[in-house]
Amino acid sequence: MQFDSKFVIVIAEDLPVWQKLNVVSFLSGGITSTSAVKTGERYVDGSDNTYLPLCIQPTIVLKVKRSKLPTFIQRANRANIETAIFIEDMFATGHDEANRSTVRYYDTESLPLVGIAMCAEKKFVDKVVKGAKLHD
After folding, report:
1. pLDDT at 1
2. How far apart are CA 47 and CA 114, in angstroms?
3. How many domains, in total, are found in the chain?
4. H/E run at residue 100
5. Is the distance from CB of 11 to CB of 133 less than 8 angstroms?
6. Name one Pfam family in it (predicted).
């Protein structure tokens, strides 16, 4: 199946695995809270137990040097693409309000980014994340 949009998460390649998984989890939650991502129907197993619906399109996880993430945010902002972000400081906070407070502390150019996510028209997303590589 082909999609007009692309759901992509870009993470800093130097993070430990547990942090990468944490960042991907938080960022996917941010993007799936928007209308850009469509979910399917609930799943039902053979015993009639139901499970939550999932995103209907693949999520592409990319990696990049940390120093490239500010460029991606600038490109996304110029293109008016909604993004979810995760900054280094958020590993030390314990709840959403503290996360928002620590982000508010920084100007856009100074954000210590470790991950970003977006779902938008393919051609625009591809321009934003140009230079990132598929995560292995």
Report:
1. 75
2. 42
3. 1
4. helix 96-104
5. no
6. DUF2000
